[in-house]
Amino acid sequence: MRETDDRPSLPPGYRTRPPRRSDVAAIAAVAGANDTAVSGESDVTEAEIAFHWDTPRYNPEHDTLVVEADDGTVVGYRCVSSCQDHLQIDAYLVVHPEHWRRGLEPFLLTDAEARAVELAAAAQAGAAPRSASGASARTRSCSSSSARPASRPPASSSR
């Protein structure tokens, strides 16, 4: 792992903050634009993002981060969460294609790695991550097909 001094910093012209419920549409748009630029299509929905945020293990102040341009436009997002009592960590990072190669990707990846290390340490210690309400969260896997909203089919393995 990198030393703190070597960590990429947030590029000028951007700021970060925890997400707000009102960000769901903007995050889905960023994810959709990213997916479409990469694969030609996107199946990300607002319902899927909202569903994940409503799972017991979701802790918005620690698990997610929104990147905004100086004008307040959401241009990036990262979510890192622990989905099981054992060590299983899911990470999701997206940057709007208009903001690719400006230094956001290394910043988000390093930030996601730091959160994953925190979750791994908690799993090793036997502590369940805390939900936003502060309650211990030991239910539902966020990566299983049963945890998806009914309107979304399982993801294709072609990605």
Task: Write a structural description.
The chain has a 4-stranded antiparallel β-sheet, with helices on both faces. It is built from 4 helices and 4 strands. It has a single domain, classed as 3-Layer(aba) Sandwich (Aminopeptidase), CATH 3.40.630.30. The protein has 159 residues and is an alpha+beta fold. It is globular, with a radius of gyration of 16 Å.
Look up the CATH topology: Aminopeptidase
Beta-strand residue fraction: 15-25%
Structural class: alpha+beta
Strand order of the largest sheet: 1-2-3-4
Measure the end-to-end span: 27 Å
Mean pLDDT: 78
Quick one: how many beta strands? 4
Main sheet overview: 4 strands, antiparallel
User: In CATH, what is the class?
Assistant: Alpha Beta
Spell the H/E element sequence: EHHHEEEH
In terms of quaternary structure, what is this?
single chain
CATH architecture: 3-Layer(aba) Sandwich
List the domain count as a whole number.
1
**Rg, please?**
16 Å
Instruction: State the helicity in percent bands.
Output: 25-40%
Name given to the CATH homologous superfamily: Gcn5-related N-acetyltransferase (GNAT)
From the structure above, extract its key features.
disordered C terminus, alpha+beta, four-stranded antiparallel sheet, 4 helices, Aminopeptidase, 159 residues
Q: Which helices and strands, and how do they pair?
A:
Layout: E1 14-17, H1 24-39, H2 46-53, H3 60-63, E2 64-69, E3 74-82, E4 89-95, H4 104-124
Antiparallel strand pairs: 1-2, 2-3, 3-4
